[in-house]
Amino acid sequence: VVDCPAELARDGGVELRTADLAVLVTTPHKPALVDAYRTHDLADDLDTPVASVVVNRIESDRDREIADRLGRELGVDITTIESQSALAEAQAGWVPIRDYEPEASAATAYESLADRLERADERLSDRAESL
After folding, report:
1. Phi then psi for 21, rounded to 5 degrees?
2. Number of CB atoms found within 10 A of residue 79's CB
């Protein structure tokens, strides 16, 4: 797992090109969405599959609509993470959200994302073996 900023600089492209899968993380705010679209396009140009997009800090129905539209336009699954105090508190204490508050919606969303990434990795592995 390599965490890098959304950017079109040379270093970002190198990291993206060497990845087996990409997960784009954004918020429902315009500057972050622009970066997500640009990074998706770069991943596509580099033949790096985008397995999912995570949209953090969901606070309203409008934010959910933005996330849904993003998923449709990019053709990828979306994981939404709602803003919640338990998530911020867990991060501040360096405690996984599942340990801090097991019933938090963010914990379920992250588990769903992990499952999605495992399935995408399996599909890529199966495809590579058949070549």
Report:
1. -140, 155
2. 23
- Cα–Cα distances in angstroms (integers) from residue 19 to residues 2, 12, 13, 14, 15, in the given order: 8, 11, 10, 9, 6
Q: pTM here?
A: 0.85
Q: Quote the tokens at residue 83.
A: 């803003």
Q: pLDDT tens digits for 35-81?
A: 999 999 988 998 998 999 999 999 999 999 999 999 999 999 999 99
* Spatial separation of the C-alpha atoms in residues 39 and 50, rounded to whole Å: 10
CA distances from 33 to 25, 43, 93 (A): 9, 15, 29
Three-class DSSP category at 97: helix
What is the rounded distance in angstroms from the CA atom of residue 4 to the CA atom of residue 77?
A: 20
